[in-house]
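Need a sequence for this fold. Nothing fancy.
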């Protein structure tokens, strides 16, 4: 699993003009991609990492501050554009494999005590955020 994580000061995701997930103030926006060999154990590991990674102001984590997270599925994180002009998506897991694993990341975060908002799997989403820093990291498990 792979996540592009941005420290934000507010973020939201809309589907068809409706806000489906939003966090206010300091938190993390995590774009999560799933590949073919990912497992529920990797989802749990990613959730723990997202909850405890110290990238908020003052080298704090969401678990330290009770900061919220916005988790959005993004298969394009496994795109490959090294050849030609069109990316391929062969490394991205198909929806029936990926969706339960993204849901598992969210469930594990909530079990840890996190406030988690989400996008809508497979939808055409519009993501708005204020990147604080800017600060962006790539996490892989």
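Here you go.
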């Amino acid at each position: 699993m792979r996540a592009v994580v941005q420290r934000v000061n507010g973020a939201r995701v809309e589907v068809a003009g409706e806000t489906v997930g939003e966090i206010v103030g300091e938190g993390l926006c995590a774009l999560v991609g799933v590949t073919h060999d990912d497992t529920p154990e990797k989802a749990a590991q990613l959730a723990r990492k997202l909850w405890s990674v110290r990238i908020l102001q003052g080298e704090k984590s969401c678990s330290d501050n009770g900061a919220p997270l916005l988790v959005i599925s993004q298969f394009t994180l496994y795109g490959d554009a090294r050849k030609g002009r069109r990316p391929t998506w062969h490394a991205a897991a198909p929806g029936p494999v990926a969706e339960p694993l993204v849901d598992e990341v969210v469930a594990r975060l909530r079990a840890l005590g996190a406030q988690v908002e989400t996008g809508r799997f497979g939808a055409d989403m519009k993501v708005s955020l204020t990147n604080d820093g800017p600060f962006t990291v790539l996490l892989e498990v």
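For context: The longest helix spans residues 95-111.
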